[in-house]
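ok, trying the design again with the full structure, not the truncated one.
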């Protein structure tokens, strides 16, 4: 049991470290090849914090551990709002940029509600239909993610257009210094190796823990794995808030949820259909509740997530996750 916990935590640590090294190597290579910073920022850097979720869930799908993948996708999104965003707001109230309210938050709500509706086959079509996300649903999620990227890129066209979220990602790309050819190769290859090894260790350890304690895989994904894979978002948000860049924290959380639902969820379901585990619909409904709550919080008053609202989100999340874990163990 202790070995499995150490394997899971160690795997997550190796995974996060490897993702950071690999992204820096790829960014350096793209810069050397003359790829514009805005393109790097919108692709490589923007995907960087979601690399742990991608690696863990792709590994889970390849091993047919789709309950673990489902729990991680839903759990990571719930933690982003009920833990990461809440903690950031408690540290310092978060000012919400207008572009996030107009574009990212509505799209996050659309993505989450789409995933929820896709999971309601038995309720909508009758008990004879299994609760699952087939490959067709996965492809639809990926297409919707493509629409989001296209819409974002189109809004950036034209002179004088500025998007703070895109600008932040671009600045992050420009801060990564180009490396020599051999160093870039070492960074990319070693980073990829660490991601693969870390994901393998994390998934294997999590499955062992679930079997030992008799806990469903999706609960392990909903809690332990999700906390581990969202560490990059948590660290990024805390640093941004402490620097007085609260709008970055909000954009990071919302953007990460869109990536998790559409890109990660779509990729996993395309690799292997995801069966909705027992209680999974409730987890998705709770995620949808948290997601919808963000909109009135964001537009209220001075477009600021206050400390009191952060505390409410945190209490709501901790209450649900405690109930969910207790009922699964009982």
């Amino acid at each position: 049991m202790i070995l499995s916990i150490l394997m899971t935590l160690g795997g997550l640590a190796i995974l996060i470290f490897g993702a950071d090294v690999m992204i820096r190597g790829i960014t350096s290579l793209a810069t050397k090849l003359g790829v514009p910073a805005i393109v790097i920022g919108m692709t490589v850097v923007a995907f960087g914090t979601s690399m742990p979720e991608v690696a863990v869930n792709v590994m889970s799908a390849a091993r047919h551990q789709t309950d673990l993948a489902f729990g991680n996708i839903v759990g990571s999104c719930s933690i982003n709002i009920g833990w990461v965003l809440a903690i950031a707001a408690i540290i310092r109230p978060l000012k919400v940029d207008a572009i996030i309210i107009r574009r990212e938050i509505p799209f996050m709500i659309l993505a989450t509600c789409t995933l929820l509706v896709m999971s309601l086959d038995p309720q909508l079509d009758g008990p004879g239909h299994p609760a699952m996300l087939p490959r067709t649903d996965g492809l639809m999620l990926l297409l919707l993610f493509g629409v989001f990227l296209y819409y974002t890129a189109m809004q950036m066209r034209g002179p004088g257009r500025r998007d703070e979220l895109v600008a932040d990602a671009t600045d992050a790309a420009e801060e990564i210094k180009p490396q020599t050819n051999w160093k870039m190769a070492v960074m990319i290859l070693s980073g990829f190796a660490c991601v693969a090894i870390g994901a393998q260790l994390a998934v294997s350890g999590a499955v062992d823990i679930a079997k030992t304690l008799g806990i469903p895989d999706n609960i392990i994904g909903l809690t332990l794995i999700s906390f581990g894979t969202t560490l990059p978002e948590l660290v990024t948000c805390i640093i941004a808030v402490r620097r007085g860049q609260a709008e970055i924290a909000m954009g990071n959380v919302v953007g990460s949820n869109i990536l998790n639902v559409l890109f990660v969820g779509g990729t996993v379901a395309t690799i292997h259909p995801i069966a909705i585990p027992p209680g999974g619909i409730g987890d998705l409904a709770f995620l949808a509740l948290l997601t919808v709550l963000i909109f009135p919080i964001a537009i209220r008053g001075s477009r600021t997530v206050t400390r009191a609202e952060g505390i409410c989100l945190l209490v709501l999340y901790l209450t649900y996750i405690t109930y969910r874990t207790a009922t699964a163990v009982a």
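Keeping the full-length input from now on. The mean pLDDT is 82.
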